[in-house]
Write a structure and sequence with these properties.
- The chain is an alpha/beta fold.
- The protein folds into two domains: 3-103, Enolase-like, N-terminal domain (Enolase-like, domain 1, 2-Layer Sandwich); 108-366, Alpha-Beta Barrel (TIM Barrel), CATH 3.20.20.120.
- The chain has helices at residues 44-55, 63-73, 80-101, 126-130, 142-154, 191-208, 224-233, 249-257, 272-280, 291-294, 296-308, 321-333, 350-353, 381-384; strands at 3-13, 16-25, 30-35, 116-122, 159-162, 165-168, 171-174, 213-217, 241-244, 263-265, 286-289, 312-315, 340-343, 360-361, 364-366.
Length: 388
């Protein structure tokens, strides 16, 4: 069955836009994917519009052929924006193929290793601190952090990830020089940040209790010296993993060699060639793969390579419900899975944008058996919640 059209669709939810690829075959079957066109990924929509012309008319069942032709068309820049555009098209192809075969997408990947996937509550506290008007109740102080930890535990989650915060007279404030121009570009955490983070995590642990894992995302916010300073300051804390982004694999290997914590990272890489130096340098315990950016089929290749190097994997997933179920199919099929990311705090629009919401029971995502990814956007949402 051949590809007839590929188009992009968009809507708004909370503080962000959601972006989708709609692929239609000759018989009217529609394959969907969700992709990211924000932050440093701006321009993905235009790249999809251009690259889609390469594969219109090709058989949707032959997804490896489709990828090869897209990669050839983007050969001189097969990273970043173009790689994300190819991944978005690939994921819509996979949805259409699975629907034509009448099977859930995980059947295309060799079937399920697991029926349920352990998830962690991502950006826990982060969204309620920075976007409390959208994700109430707002978290203003350490007492609120304790209350949030208790909520996580009582709702049945077994893991939660947060970011760098500290209490000040003005309330809780973050430290993220890797993402903004306001903090010192030297990216060396000052003592007040180290001590404040210790207090923040202690309050979070108090609310969570002893049996819920804490994951800490340090993002791009330091260099090697700064990351080691943060890790040493947290040596007495019980932390499931420390997440670090650095473009230099040997630097991350140095950090890992001196860390008492599990080290995860690489969420911003866009292909197997980029991951290999981190595997070869033994820089990671857990490779974070953004299957929304890379494409699920290509992400499975990265997961297999990670397995060969005795490295576990986890998805990067802070998008909408379609992306969550896309990642759920990936996670259900990957033997060397650590855990899955998902945002639990949601804008009210999300309930109206998607045909099905993820089913999470006791901190486990139930992988759906519906054909394709198991959800898709409602097309009336594109006009009801127009992108901004």
């Amino acid at each position: 069955m051949n590809i007839k059209t590929i188009e992009t669709c968009h809507c708004h939810s909370g503080w962000r836009n959601y972006h989708f690829v709609k692929l239609t075959t000759d018989d009217g079957t529609v394959g969907w994917s969700e992709y990211d066109d924000g932050f440093s990924g701006a321009g993905v929509t235009e790249a999809i519009d251009r690259l889609s012309q390469v594969v219109v008319g090709l058989d949707v069942h032959h997804h490896e052929n489709i990828y090869a032709r897209l990669a050839a068309a983007a050969r001189q820049s097969l990273v970043g924006v173009l790689a994300r555009a190819i991944g978005a098209i690939e994921n819509a192809v996979l949805d259409a193929k699975a629907k034509l075969l009448g099977v859930p997408c995980y059947e295309l990947f060799g079937g399920k290793v697991r029926d349920q996937v352990r998830v962690y509550w991502s950006h826990c506290g982060t969204w309620r601190i920075s976007h409390g008007d959208i994700y109430p109740p707002v978290v203003k102080n350490l007492d609120d952090v304790r209350t949030l930890g208790k909520e996580v535990r009582e709702r049945g989650f077994t893991a939660a990830k947060t970011n760098i915060f500290r209490q000040t007279q003005e309330g809780l404030v973050g430290w993220n020089p890797g993402f903004n121009g306001r903090d010192d570009p030297g990216r060396m955490p000052p003592r007040k940040v180290l001590e404040g983070l210790q207090e923040y995590l202690a309050a979070f642990r108090e609310g969570l209790g002893p049996h819920v894992d804490i994951l800490l995302d340090l993002n791009f916010n330091a260099r090697t010296e700064g990351y080691l300073s943060l890790i040493r300051a947290l040596a007495d804390h019980d932390i499931f993993w420390i997440e670090i982004d650095t473009p230099h694999a040997p630097a991350l290997a140095t950090i890992r060699s001196q860390s008492p914590f599990t080290i995860s990272g690489c969420e911003s890489l866009t292909g197997l060639v980029e991951f290999l130096p981190y595997f070869q340098k033994e820089a990671l315990d857990v490779a974070i793969i953004d299957a929304v950016w890379i494409g699920i089929w290509q992400s499975l290749k990265i997961a297999a390579a990670a397995d060969a190097f005795q490295v576990n994997v986890a998805p990067h997933n802070y998008y909408g419900h379609l992306a969550t179920l896309m990642n759920g199919h990936f996670c259900s099929s990957v033997p060397n899975l650590k855990i899955m990311e998902t945002d639990i705090d949601r804008a009210p629009e999300d309930a109206e944008i998607f045909t099905h919401e993820p089913e999470i029971v006791d901190g486990q995502l139930i992988v759906p058996d519906r054909p394709g990814w198991g959800t898709e956007p409602r097309e009336d949402a594109f006009s009801k919640f127009p992108a901004t």
